[in-house]
Amino acid sequence: MAEVKLHPDWLARIGGEFDQPYMAALKDFLAGERAKGKTIYPRPADWFAALDATPPQEVRVVILGQDPYHGPGQAHGLCFSVQPGVRTPPSLVNIYKELHSDLGIPPARHGFLKSWAEQGVLLLNNCLTVEAGQAASHQKKGWERFTDAAVAAVAADAAPKVFILWGSHAQKKAANVAGLGTASPHLVLRAPHPSPLSAHNGFFGSRPFSQANAFLEARGRGAIDWRLPEMPAAE
Length: 235
Prior knowledge:
alpha/beta, about 240 residues, globular, two-stranded antiparallel sheet
């Protein structure tokens, strides 16, 4: 696996996954792809960036993506987010439009969402790597099982959280997670994906940001400041 150190609080909850055969197979697959000269996004140091940026006990909101962006310089380990200086992708443009409609926050001039992650918004992709230019190329290689374990660990903790599930893919991923039933302490918000192909089918007008904050504030967990800072420096 990548030469990174996963946050110790995550290791305490899901570190056993690294000892499972599927993770050894995933490691071999990734090493083989790189040996063939294939470009993989994001860089290895960022494969677990979402977990490192948001320790499990600090998670207040979970947003699930599918795969990292597969264009040069885009992916850095947080779903929907891109590096400073990179053009804001269409789905994130629509997220900003809904944020403006919902809370009156003007769209940011960049797509770097790390300030959300630092406030407890877990921006987790289903698969944590992708081949350059090949969407969904690393599906069913083992990442899904690993990220399922991460989502299950978050859901199993009784501290109230908001799961924002955009699109059928995210909704199916969370469907069987313990703690998301009718007696759950968490709030589950479902809406179509913000992609230009589906955003007009119910994503716009779903008001996830205000609903999340109202839920969190009512339970003493504090609101997320969804405003993004001015253009940060590239990492």
